[in-house]
Each structure stands twice: as C-alpha cells, then as structure tokens.
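Dear Dr. H.,

I hope your travels went smoothly. While you were away I took the liberty of generating a structure for the chain from your last submission, since the lab meeting agenda had it listed for discussion. I wanted you to have the full record in hand beforehand rather than looking at slides cold. The sequence, exactly as received, is reproduced here:
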Amino acid sequence: MKRVKHSYLLPITALLVVAATALTADPASAADTEATKVARGKYLVTTAACNDCHTPWHIGPSGPEPDMTRMLSGHPESMVISQPATIASGPWTLAAAPTNTAWSGPWGVSFTANLTPDAETGLGKWTQTTFMQAIRTGRHLGRGRQILPPMPFAMYRNFTDEDLGAIFAYLRSIPPIKNRVPEPLPPVVTAAAAEK
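The corresponding predicted structure, in token form, is as follows:
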C-alpha cells in the first residue's frame, strides 16, 4: 500500500501553534509596550521643546515659564489678538505674545495649536496618519493650510515614523483641555506694499 504524504498538515500545525501562542500571550506585555511608546513620546515632546510654544507661559517663582496646568493646550482662546504686531524698522522682524503662543511676522499672526486630545478643540479626532502627514507636509491635517512659523516642521519631519507614532501616543495620553485656538491672521498689506 502506497503511503500518501500529507503536506497540508505542516501549515495547519504551524497555524495552530501561532494561534495558541497568541491566545496565551501576556496582555501585560502589550500594555508594557504601549507604556514604553508613551514614555518615548514624552521624552521626544520634552526634548523637542514642544512646551516652549504650545504651553502658555506665565510668570512663575523663577520668572517666565510654561504653565503646566495648561500643558500643550495652545494659544489661550481668552487672549484675543485681532491684528499683527506693528514692528518698527530696524533689525526686528517678529514679535511674540507674553504667553509665547502667538507669533507675528511677515506671514501675519500664527497661534500655537492645542495638542491635547480634546475632541472638539485639540487632536482628539486626529489619527496617527493625519498627525504624521501634518508633520511631513507642513500642512494642517496633512492637506490643509500651511503650518506657519515658528513651528519647526522642516526639522521635525526628520523624526522617524516610530518617533512620530510615539509622540502621537503620548499626546493621546495627556489630559484633554478644551481650548479653541483661533485661525491665523493674514499680514497687514501696507500702502507701499500694495503699490508694488
């Protein structure tokens, strides 16, 4: 009697081993992996100085410093700025609000974004893909208006996908803060510029 080789048994056996391993995997290791990713994101956000602009500043015991009770919430909606700063002639070309969250220059006025996971006013509805596209393209939501100075997206686009994923994971882990940041203001067109 001729023996039939059952070559299909090897893939089925391998599939069963993989399934059994997945079912017995420690759920704590997945949580550890996510915690490691969030910790890496926190490190990157801290060393990339995101709080310098996205966290409103106040005067603390040692002088001006980020107000960490409003961590990464962007330009305070209560601080209304309706026009670019008037900059006198000379070496100065830009100005910043005392909160360090609004910047005025030749581009008009830019306001730092709310990076907290608030669904209405922050990144709560963003996906990791949207976040990565915004950094890579220098466009809001990866396809909208240009991201304006002083946001150093041209440098930040050098982060790896893994780094940007960690940053996004960290931003999703911080407390949401409801704070609607205004849209940028266009530059003032002077009579001399209009004549050109």
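Two observations you may find useful: The two ends are 97 Å apart (CA to CA). Residues 32-80+95-179 form one domain.

With kind regards,
E. W.
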